[in-house]
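Worked example 2:
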Amino acid sequence: MSQAKVDRYKEEKKNRAKTMKIKKIKKAIAILIAALGLGAIIGIPLGKFVYNKQKEEAARNATISTLEFDSWFDKEWAGKYGDMFANDAQDIVDQLNSATASDADASESDAE
């Protein structure tokens, strides 16, 4: 071996521990960055999916108070269909009044 090679070998041997330590740190940092990237690629869409699923489930199982239901009923159902049954209700009242009047007439004629 030439003297230059011997000197270079001695220098490498002297700095070998420091060089190996730096290589290990670089390797650990590279693994950490790769794991974080892979976790983000998998975790973000999966997390969004689970969050949306849980939000839908909560919306399906939501409860409302009677005041909220009453106001909804008044606005939606009665507003749309109330006119349909308003005339029917008046007809029923008229029929009941005429039936009671005819019953009263019938009971008067039975009494005579």
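The chain has two helices and no strands. The mean pLDDT is 82.
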